[in-house]
Methylated-DNA--[protein]-cysteine S-methyltransferase
Amino acid sequence: MKKQQGSELFSAIVAAPFGAMGVRTQDGQLRELVYLPPHFAEKDAQDAVSALACAQLARYFRDPDAPFDLPLAAQGSAFQHTVWAAIAQIPRGQVRTYGDVARFIGSAPRAVGQACGANWYPLVIPCHRVTAAGGLGGFSHHDDAKGFHLGVKRWLLAHEGVEGMRWSAR
């Protein structure tokens, strides 16, 4: 079997309905989760934390109410942590706009969007639940309406029961 180029960057790769999720761990902590396109093959967990992350991700893909409980490495600025804490309070099945989050924390929508895009732990910190005032908005620093990342955001929101969201595999 040919090794997938780029797979060496991850401690594990778990299949997802939209493609895959790359899991990076270090020193017994989760360092990053990455949305990967469908051409990435699964990769067995290389350590206990990546195995735990894969199990929790797979459970979430079956059940949008499945909780995450992972040892997260400390990353990000104080401002990013403020944004991420606000995002973590958004219930499954609901969305808030960048402006809503900005007003809640006393900031600006663009700064909230930048913090969302810098999220090391998507799904664990559900930045997909933050949208633009007039539509879906961007996702993971991508805004191509027909691109992979916004397709992931559509799938996640539909999976979580957000009304009006549809996703289809190409």
About this structure: Helices lie at 48-62, 78-88, 98-105, 109-117, 148-159. The radius of gyration is 16 Å.
